[in-house]
């Protein structure tokens, strides 16, 4: 039992930072995955901080394609995450079994992966370790992204304070290796490499050592997948080459942009192009024995649970720490000088030593490898200023302070340090400590009676913003000046909170009736009252004489403020239509024909013996009459 709640049932996988177990939450009676940090790392503040950061980061991502984090806690020496348990396999399992995938299947996996990363990028987070091992495919077909252990906020310093880069060699973007920087575009690069691998069944850059792979990522473009699988659609080539451009500026800005490109490419492909079977693809019967396993892993199983991967995957697919900056090694395959004696192949161990020496020595500047050159920053978060200074002094470090507002950290206590806990400072340097000034408050100023522009400047000067602006008639407050604020003056609010304003429209004036007047007369009457006039470009049929005012807005009797605009609509006169000929028709049919044409109808019946047949009509059939006019029909009489 862990933390008196989680009953561990089976080990799923062992990683570089943690072991993952299948467990039962005895409180809620549900199966979940427990990610437990190795006890040896739990004493390292940097690793614990990263571990907890994963929990907080993923907990913010409420997305169906992200493996959810339910809980985070500590039980003695064990630091753990309680996560969603996904019964199924990883994309790495699928690639080992199937080799290359059909383009349709590759895009079906890429879209939810990019949707998950897009949600992370919009939340200001970068995954930094995208690879097939971190893409989970459930037995129900759902695709989820896991292992946000290297996640980092976009707006934080994205260069590791320890001078190291964390990630997986085969999927690292060039700028991660060369400068240690990581923004949303490093995830875009990794997804482009994963897409290449799904389409071709192989990685774009390979080698027997991580250094060889690093060299290729830095100096060689990822080739289009059609170079390995002839016949692939050019749209797929463009997706991969754009996402894996060595210059980050040429890539989509984030996963949302790449997802849009993927969907556009899919729409442009025919069914034949989407369902093309790559030569490298294998059927389940041809695949490895992993296809018959009980796929219930949350992340790839330990080596004992499945056939060992090839040597290259064993070496290159693990998360790797590289000292910065990685100096480019000599290109692989360089010929040795002739000595006159038979050449012997250098041993793999000797090559590894030579590469390590090159990585440590060659580069720009001098890089100190000995940890004795640095002092590790102890954790002083939430300590008082005096206690933090004492703790840093014991570690041989000095301290300089800054202050900032905080809603969560008590006044006078430490909000953050630079470098952070576990970071390194050369020798006995100083650590910048930010102390809390307590919650930030801004007081709503009294701006009642001020002109709007002046009131806005005063509100913004107090650290607040102007919110909704309403208008109201007032006979006392000048037009354009503030009548009231919400909240009222003197109330304290958080900085940048909105303040709603009610602005005076001035005294209310009655709008005179100008319908039926000429445009000139109407304009004069309205301007005399202090209104502005605007004539609409649209004219309408009406009973008003042609060229006169047919309608006004506001209508007569309405209220407006001095300087408000009254819109006039000009009459085109009455609409003229052709009168239908109804002589000889029955009374009902005649009425129907005339009313359908837009006329009113009156019936003149003879006093003696009226008959149900129209004898005549007041306007002859075929003549023009104004729509809405009354047409009189006379019925026949007599025997």
Folded structure, characterized:
With 639 residues, the protein is α+β, with helices and mostly antiparallel strands. It has six domains: 1-85, Phosphorylase Kinase, domain 1 (2-Layer Sandwich); 90-322, Transferase(Phosphotransferase) domain 1 (Transferase(Phosphotransferase), domain 1); 371-436, Trypsin Inhibitor V, Chain A, CATH 3.30.10.20; 450-504, Trypsin Inhibitor V, Chain A (2-Layer Sandwich); 508-570, Trypsin Inhibitor V, Chain A, CATH 3.30.10; 576-637, Trypsin Inhibitor V, Chain A (2-Layer Sandwich), CATH 3.30.10.20. 26% of the residues lie in helices and 25% in strands. The strands form twelve sheets. Strands 1-2-3-5-4 form a five-stranded antiparallel β-sheet. A three-stranded antiparallel β-sheet has the order 6-8-9. A three-stranded mixed β-sheet has the order 14-17-15, with helices on one face. Helix 8 (234-243) runs antiparallel to helix 9 (255-268). The chain starts with 5 loop residues before the first strand and ends with a strand. The model is unreliable at 153-167 and 287-372 (pLDDT under 50).
